[in-house]
């Protein structure tokens, strides 16, 4: 088969569509003929040599895909050849075929195009596992989403609203119109406005019950300041650095929680549990049209370098998809 390989760590130009050995499904795995994959921020880091795949994961880029099952390994009961699926991957999505642990497969939600489905598993699993499973966001609470225009953010905004939360999102002003189309989200232009003040305005001074943060160090102090009493800060990205100063006094006074998680390095049984939760709690919202895939554009996988340039420039809103075949 062919896959995108990284000739040496570097810029988008090191991505190359080349012949590689076909994957074989092991026990408990299925083989998927990839129809599309999606670019995630982590792919840019892996390309640069900063984010090696976890042990046992395929060497190629690609944390999610959609496609058709073409072979089923031993010990797989619930999936059959010919089924259209999407999947959460530890790697290997930028390829014509990928072997996937059965627990990481999802059916394509009714009403969603097979190609668009490629952009759902990573954001659904990340956002649901943090905002719902760990932070227990409930109806009537306020969710602050940083980077509302990111793949993660555009999904989190919709999930928050579908769960009945008030949603506040930070994004550059140029993305606000596109985000307004997703629903009644309160938007903060983080370059011009102070998100702490804006969240307080929206909540009558209370603050956000849950914050989904992708910035890390540079937002740590302000995130704690923006938390409501009993608030939960979930950090999933470190675009603003990894080491910050935490005012434990401020956190303690609010009975706040600060947590950080990474999906990719979770063992397969944890990923399977998250995927099962997504299927049970998120897929019905997608099938009801309350959460839609937000696709900035589709590019052929042979233009993966162009797709990486686009994501690096932050000009996109939602997901950039790579089609295969
Ligand atoms: N821990 C995990 O399990 C996990 C899983 C998936 C993703 N992630 C992380 O989640 C983040 C989003 O991933 P993605 O693939 O969806 O990324 P993406 O689509 O590439 O988006 C990155 C976003 O960062 C925003 N941004 C940059 N500076 C900002 C600032 N100061 N304040 C607010 N937003 C800012 C940009 O929006 P503007 O153009 O508006 O600046 C852009 O939308 C990444 O950090 C990624 O590593 C973590």
Automatic annotation (TrEMBL):
GO molecular function terms listed in the Swiss-Prot or TrEMBL record: NADPH binding; oxidoreductase activity, acting on NAD(P)H
Domain Enoyl reductase (ER): 10-322
InterPro entries tied to this protein: ADH-like_N, ER, GroES-like_sf, NAD(P)-bd_dom_sf, Quinone_OxRdtase_PIG3
Domain of life the protein comes from: Bacteria
Keyword entries, A-Z: NADP, Oxidoreductase
Gene3D superfamilies: Medium-chain alcohol dehydrogenases, catalytic domain, NAD(P)-binding Rossmann-like Domain
NCBIfam families according to UniProt: quinone_pig3 (TIGR02824)
UniProt-recorded name of the protein: NAD(P)H-quinone oxidoreductase
Organism: Micromonospora radicis
Lineage: Bacteria, Bacillati, Actinomycetota, Actinomycetes, Micromonosporales
